[in-house]
Amino acid sequence: MLLSLWWPASGQTGLEPFPPERVLEALDLARPELAPVRAAAADFRLAMARLAAYYAQRTAVRYDARPKPADAARIAQADGVLAHVFDLGFGYPPQHYGKDIDWMADPVGDIEWVAAMQRFYWQAPLLEAWEATRDRKYAQGWVRLTSDWIRKHPVKPEHFAWLDIQVGLRAAAWAAAFDRLRGSGVIDGPFLATLLAGVVDHGRKISLYPRRTAHNKAVIEAVGLLRLAIMFPELREARQWIAQAWELLGDNVPRQVTPEGVQREWSPSYHKLVATLLVEALAVARDNGYEAPPSLYRLTEKMFDFWLAMTAPDGHTPMFGDTTRKPGTQPDPGPLLVAAKLFGRPELAAVAEGRPDPRPAWLARAFPVSGMYFLRSGWAPDAVFVALHSSPPAISGHDQPDNGTFELYAGGRWLIADSGAYAYPNTPFAAERDWFRRTAAHATLTLDGRDSANAPRHLLWWSGAHGDVLVFENESYPRLVHRRTVFFPGRRSIVLLDEALGDAPGALEVHFPFAPGRLKRGPGDSAVRTDFSDGANLLVFAPPGADAELRLGEGQISFELNRKEARPVATFRLRRQAPAALLTLLVPYSGGVAPAVTANFAGDFKPGDALVALEASVAGDRWRLVRDIDTGVASIEPQP
Questions:
Q1: How far apart are CA 448 and CA 297, in angstroms?
Q2: How much is the pTM?
Q3: In whole angstroms, what is the distance from residue 184 CA to residue 262 CA?
Q4: How high is the pLDDT of residue 472?
Q5: Are 97 and 117 in contact (CB under 8 A)?
Q6: Is the pLDDT of residue 5 over 90?
Q7: Is the Cβ–Cβ distance between 460 and 423 less than 8 Å?
Q8: Which of 224, 216, 215, 274 is closest to 245 using CA atoms?
Q9: Residue 27 pairs with which residues in a beta bridge?
Q10: Across-strand partners of 584?
Q11: Tens of pLDDT along 518-558?
């Protein structure tokens, strides 16, 4: 613990707001580069003017701001911010705050909006407009609004504005804005004194009250502290803040990231958030001569191994948990590019930029401790990609009761898709959040439509020349285990064997939630297929002897917060209670005519058998599929 290294400035106790008029006391004026400031220390206004001039010309600090091009719409958004009209997204229209801003106002009834205001999300259009136009009004607007926020929010650890995530994100936002605007000519001595006093308040709040529980917020907070220290090394406490940031991250990251490199909220969005925070912080720290503990480098690199594995051919990731995937958008390649450079991993850059080479040699990856599995036919845009999820209980509420679920991408589109999150708690749409989270909204098995527990067990993983085999199970309900076997023959089609093991009474259903579009029944009574007019389609087929009824219905999907749309769902309702099993074959194909397919057991089978042998054919290609849980042996062999 490094908390003992904190010391209050002279005359201060605890977390009293640091007075701007005493900001020179917070500086290490013995630094040679601050000699002109030190010489003028008796004249505060002159000293601050010299300090502002020093910062405007400073070259010693290398920062990682990546300016984004601002188009006309973004510049218009920045003009709105100058007029106190804030457009923060979340599916809400821009909100006008009037002449005197109440930063804690909640005009849309959504706490996430209030949090975004406190996190300075509104500054991005101003900075981007400044970069694009060099019009000083955008820099002046940031100074004016930041001054107003500081004046109205003296440091109070218990206040919403000063909670861990708000402080961490705002600290990083201030560091980025200062780096962009320090040479703009608008940061004068009086504002600099106000800002630096606020920086001290932020650093000391994190230093005195760091979040210790394993959570993405702990990383956000520690990275905010690190970034303040890197941006303002002239502060006396900067070195202590860096040491404490490394200590906090070194302690917290291994507790929220598995040894496989998977963040324990089991949500790709939050994994990417934490991985991005870490890799960009490690890179900017190294650029400025601050080396992180080696173990932090190693674990962060593993997080990008997982990021690479879960990246679909379109560059997006699965929507497990509270994850969004807005259609028509391209993922930000920045974090992968930073990781590629930091770790010497050119394949990360190739995937980020959509280049064919170099790509990883592997096609399938298993993360059994984390319960995440990924299968693919290749790295081309039309490749088949399957992501499966069966994880232990998460460290937060960003996971869902969805063990056994999967998503399927092929031929340039998502075909089986997760439900998404739709809304967060304490928001106007929170009442519908549980509908999207529920087990029955996912591609897995349910008992009487009830939510399942997350109690997984990894059983088998095998990868060979002709495909991959995966077996896991989940103690979904009292006296009922859902075992799912996945065969990937030829790495083009998927054979699923779902077993309900135990004696719990009730109706068993296996759900297949499709991407938005239309479905058609057939061929036969136990098959259904998508009906896209061009590109890839998907056939879901159960053998004619399957003791299950196929039902088609309408579900919902949410690709982004507070927005939803209808999508079709196919459900196989088993006619038997547990123990029971369902065999299905999923075949992506191009065009409007589904291929001829068959699937059946090769020999006797009863639910719970360790040894399973299957025969399947797709468009004339015949396969023999075997897995044996007891011996760990599996095979996929083409047949004449």
A1: 46
A2: 0.95
A3: 41
A4: 98
A5: no
A6: no
A7: no
A8: 224
A9: 235
A10: 496
A11: 999 998 899 999 999 999 999 999 999 899 999 999 999 99
And the tokens for 149? 């926020």
Given a cut of 90, whether residue 280 has pLDDT beyond it is yes
Q: Is pLDDT above 70 for 591?
A: yes
- Average pLDDT estimate for 416-429: 92
Q: How far are the Cα atoms of 17, 44, 45, 150, 237 from residue 23, in angstroms, in the given order?
A: 11, 9, 12, 15, 12
Q: What is the mean pLDDT of residues 176-182?
A: 96
Is residue 11's pLDDT more than 70?
A: no
Residue 11 tokens, joined: 């005359």
Q: What are phi and psi of 11, to 5 degrees?
A: 85, 0
**Coil, strand or helix at 145:** helix
Distances (CA, A) of 369 to 3, 457, 472, 476, 586: 34, 9, 11, 18, 27
Please give the C-alpha separations between residue 633 and each of 69, 404, 511, 603, 636, in angstroms, as whole numbers. 54, 21, 28, 18, 11
What is the rounded CA–CA span in Å between residue 43 and residue 516?
Answer: 68
* Assigned token pair, 468: 């991959």
C-alpha dist (Å) from residue 478 to 447, 501, 503 = 10, 11, 9
Phi, psi of 200 (to 5 degrees): -60, -45
Q: Is 101 left (phi over 0), alpha (psi -120 to 50) or beta?
A: beta
Tokens of 28: 């290490």
User: What is the model's pLDDT at position 14?
Assistant: 64
Question: Cα–Cα distance between 205 and 237 in angstroms, integer?
Answer: 13
CA–CA separation, 294 and 296 (whole Å): 5
Amino acid at 389: H
* pLDDT tens string 220-230: 999 999 999 99
Crossing angle between the packed helical segments 164-181 and 111-118, to the nearest 10 degrees: 40
